[in-house]
C-alpha cells in the first residue's frame, strides 16, 4: 500500500512539475489581449492576417478583437480599461496628451503608413481634376479625426479651401457615411476600402483619387496602449509586436488574392475579387507599413497635418508618445 501511495505521489509531483514548467511564470494562463479597432477595413489587413494565420497564438497570446466605430469611442474604451490595445490614428494619443493625462497613451507598433481613404465621385470621370470639387457637396469625415484632417490637408494642397470653396458635410456618424452617400447625400465622399470598391462594383460611385498618395507618409493607424499597461506587460507587448511584424512580412511576400482569401472570414459579406482589389490598391500606394516602427519624418508630417487643421496646441516630440523598442526588437529578430 505504501509503495502504491509513493508511486501516486511521484506521479502527481511529475505532473505538477510539467504543468509549472509549461506556464512560463504566468500561472498556467495564456495572456489575453483585447484589441479595439476603430473600424473594420481591408486597410488593416496585416492585423487580420496575424489573427488568421495564428501568429498571435504562435507568440503565446490569446487575442480578442472588437470594433468600436470612431476614434473617440475607441480611445474611451482604452482609457476606461474596456480594451488593452487600441488600433486607431496616432492623433488620438496626442489629444490625450494635450489634456494633461498622468497615464499617456503610447504608440508602440505602426500598422499603416498612409491615409487609407479614397475620393469617390458619384459620377464617372475620365479627366478628374481636384478643381472639380469647388462648388460641390463633399461628404467628409468627423472633425478632428485623421481621415478628415488628411482630407482637408490634401484639398488645401490643391488650393481648395474646404470650408469656403465647397459644402463640407461633417455631421454624419463615421459608421453611417457610406450609407448616407448611397442614399443620395453628396457628390463626393471620402471612403475606406473595401467600401470604395464595393460602390464601384455596384455602380454607386467611382474612385477618382487617393488621399493616401496625396498626403504622404504618416503614422495613420497604430497599435497603442496606456503607459501603465506597457510597464506591467512588457513581454506581452513584445510578443504582440512580433506577431504584427510577421503579418507585415507575410503580406509583402504574398499576392493580393492570397491575402484576400486569408482575411475573408473578417469580411463575410464581401466578394473575394473586391477584397483582392482593395488589398492591391493599398499595396500599390504603400499603405501597409513593412515595419512596426514609427519614423520621425512621418510623425512630423502628422503634426503638420494636425497643425493645418487647427487641432494641435503644441508640437509634441515623438519621444513623448512613441516607443519603438518593441518594433526594433521585432524587426531585428526577423532578420
TrEMBL record:
Gene3D superfamilies in UniProt: Periplasmic binding protein-like II (3.40.190.10)
Subcellular location: Periplasm
Signal peptide segment: 1-22
Superkingdom of this protein's organism: Bacteria
Keyword Endoplasmic reticulum: no
SUPFAM superfamilies: Periplasmic binding protein-like II
Keyword set, alphabetical order: Signal
One Pfam family of this chain: NMT1_2
PANTHER family cross-referenced by the UniProt entry: ALIPHATIC SULFONATES-BINDING PROTEIN-RELATED, TAURINE-BINDING PERIPLASMIC PROTEIN
Family: Belongs to the bacterial solute-binding protein SsuA/TauA family.
Protein name per its UniProtKB record: ABC transporter substrate-binding protein
Amino acid at each position: 500500500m505504501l509503495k502504491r501511495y509513493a508511486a501516486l505521489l511521484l506521479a502527481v509531483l511529475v505532473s505538477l512539475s510539467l504543468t509549472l514548467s509549461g506556464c512560463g511564470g504566468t500561472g498556467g494562463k495564456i495572456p489575453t489581449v483585447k484589441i479595439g479597432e476603430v473600424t473594420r477595413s481591408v486597410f488593416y489587413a496585416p492585423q487580420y492576417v496575424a489573427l488568421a494565420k495564428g501568429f498571435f497564438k504562435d507568440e503565446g497570446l490569446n487575442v480578442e478583437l472588437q470594433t468600436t466605430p470612431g476614434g473617440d469611442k475607441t480611445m474611451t474604451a482604452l482609457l476606461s480599461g474596456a480594451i488593452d490595445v487600441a488600433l486607431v490614428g496616432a492623433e488620438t494619443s496626442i489629444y490625450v496628451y494635450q489634456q494633461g493625462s498622468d497615464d499617456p497613451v503610447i504608440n508602440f507598433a505602426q500598422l499603416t503608413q498612409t491615409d487609407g481613404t479614397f475620393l469617390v465621385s458619384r459620377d464617372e470621370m475620365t479627366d478628374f481634376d481636384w478643381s472639380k470639387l469647388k462648388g460641390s457637396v463633399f461628404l467628409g469625415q468627423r472633425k478632428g479625426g485623421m481621415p478628415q484632417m488628411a482630407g482637408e490637408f490634401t484639398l488645401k494642397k490643391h488650393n481648395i479651401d474646404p470650408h469656403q470653396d465647397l459644402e463640407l458635410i461633417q455631421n454624419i456618424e463615421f459608421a453611417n457615411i457610406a450609407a448616407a452617400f448611397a442614399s443620395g447625400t453628396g457628390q463626393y465622399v471620402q471612403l475606406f476600402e473595401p467600401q470604395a470598391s464595393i460602390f464601384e462594383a455596384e455602380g454607386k460611385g467611382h474612385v477618382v483619387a487617393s488621399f493616401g498618395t496625396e498626403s504622404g507618409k504618416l503614422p495613420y493607424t497604430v497599435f497603442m496602449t496606456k503607459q501603465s499597461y506597457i510597464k506591467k506587460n512588457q513581454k506581452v507587448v513584445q510578443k504582440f509586436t512580433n506577431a504584427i511584424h510577421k503579418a507585415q512580412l507575410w503580406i509583402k511576400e504574398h499576392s493580393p488574392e492570397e491575402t484576400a482569401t486569408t482575411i475573408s472570414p473578417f469580411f463575410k459579406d464581401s466578394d473575394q475579387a473586391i477584397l483582392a482589389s482593395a488589398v492591391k490598391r493599398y499595396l500599390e500606394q504603400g499603405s501597409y507599413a513593412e515595419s512596426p516602427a514609427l519614423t520621425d519624418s512621418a510623425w512630423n508630417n502628422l503634426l503638420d497635418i494636425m497643425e493645418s487643421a487647427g487641432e494641435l496646441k503644441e508640437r509634441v516630440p515623438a519621444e513623448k508618445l512613441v516607443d519603438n523598442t518593441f518594433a526594433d526588437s521585432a524587426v531585428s529578430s526577423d532578420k
